[in-house]
Amino acid sequence: MWPLDPSRKEVLGFAVSCRVLTLVLQVLTRFLCSSTPIVYWFSAHLLQDQEPLLRSLETVPWKPLAGDSPPGCQVPRNSILGLLYNWKTCSPVTRCILGYFLTYWLLGLLLHCNFLPWT
């Protein structure tokens, strides 16, 4: 089937081993990052400890709804959207965490849509 040219066999072996290694690494990172909530727990813990905007929402006895906001002021129901709306007043730790997750989401969206490997 294959000619006796050793360079073709070496190239084929290299290509197959690279593909297997790539698949193993992608599957491992998907299992570790998707099914292990430690990354999300740690980031939530840091956000709760470091972000004064989230602490101020916890001390309010009533939860502000989007429909109850005064005209010209936008109060989101989701606290993450509130952090994104108030990006300039967030602490540096919050900016790093939100920046990491937004970058991960955007890169994953762009690379996956272009059929590039992304986990």
TrEMBL record:
One Pfam match: Mannosyl_trans2
Membrane topology: Multi-pass membrane protein
GO biological process, one term: GPI anchor biosynthetic process
Keywords on record: Endoplasmic reticulum, Glycosyltransferase, GPI-anchor biosynthesis, Membrane, Transferase, Transmembrane, Transmembrane helix
Any single GO CC term annotated in Swiss-Prot or TrEMBL for this entry: mannosyltransferase complex
Keyword Transmembrane helix included in the entry's annotation: yes
Coiled-coil segments on the chain, per record: none
Pathway note: Glycolipid biosynthesis; glycosylphosphatidylinositol-anchor biosynthesis
EC number(s) per entry: 2.4.1.-
Subcellular location: Endoplasmic reticulum membrane
Gene Ontology molecular function, alphabetical: alpha-1,6-mannosyltransferase activity; GPI mannosyltransferase activity
Parts of the chain that traverse the membrane: 97-118
PANTHER family found in the cross-reference section: GPI MANNOSYLTRANSFERASE 2 (PTHR12468:SF2)
Family recorded in the similarity comment: Belongs to the PIGV family.
Function: Mannosyltransferase involved in glycosylphosphatidylinositol-anchor biosynthesis.
Name of this protein: GPI mannosyltransferase 2
Source organism: Camelus bactrianus (Bactrian camel)
